[in-house]
Amino acid sequence: MLTILTAPIRAIIGLMALIIMMLSAITLYLVVNNDAKRARMIEACQQSLSQVLLACLHVQVEYSGKAHSDARMFVANHISWLDALLFSPAPRLRFIAKSEVKDWPILGLLAQLLGTVFIRRENKFQVYRSLPNAQRHIQDGDILMVFPEGTTTVGETTGVFRPMLLEVAQRERVLVQPIAIRYWNHKQERSKAAPFIDDDGIFMNIMKLLFQRKTIAHVHFLPAMDPKDLDRKQMAAHSQHIILNALQQPYSKPQSAPSSCSPEQVKA
Length: 268
Fold this sequence. Notes:
Blueprint (H helix, E strand, L loop, with lengths): L1 H30 L3 H22 L2 E6 L6 E6 L16 E6 L8 H7 L3 E3 L4 H16 L3 E4 L20 H6 L2 E11 L16 H9 L4 E7 L10 H16 L21
Parallel strand pairs: 1-7, 2-5, 2-6, 3-4, 3-5
Antiparallel strand pairs: 6-7
Helix pairs in contact: 1-2
């Protein structure tokens, strides 16, 4: 009952957080002249926004495994727009998304506020032409988060992992770390509210999440891959295999403290 009564209040708080973040970003661009200082302040705002939104939606994040300190690309399965919020502790993390996401209501604004790198994914040629831009981010010290399925699933299995974006790791010779993302409800059953499938509306999805007593997001860091040992197709296939294996495991509460394995420990 308390969850139902507080849902409208939490929705208003979340909306206010989005508006404040947008105004803060605009203000920082206009007022702060130092690029490095501006970037640090905007990143702090991004982290605060993510934490507020997760709290408003009663999302509890649990981490298992360990984020590799030398990884410069994360590869994960994609279930929900919430996925991006789970990695807010990681410094200089940039998500790669298809360009049309920029025009989506609410999600487009949120993606831009979180520093997403947009690429055109109409065909392989368009993706290939976007690779140098992604490479520049790694060269500048950023960490890239890639969802190689190119779409979302309900989280029981994976789609086919497309290998093209992993060419960035091949060219830059950086470690790639697979990550399995899962969502559970308060009964520790797979969440039916968290998945955001293409035909779903964002407002309906938010409403379903608001009325959940609790949603548990489980982020599982898996062993990193070295592009010296695997080509991009092999990395895509291996990532899909070990992530799929992790998705099929039952819920198990991590034994280690979140601070020891959260993406916050990954340093640029």
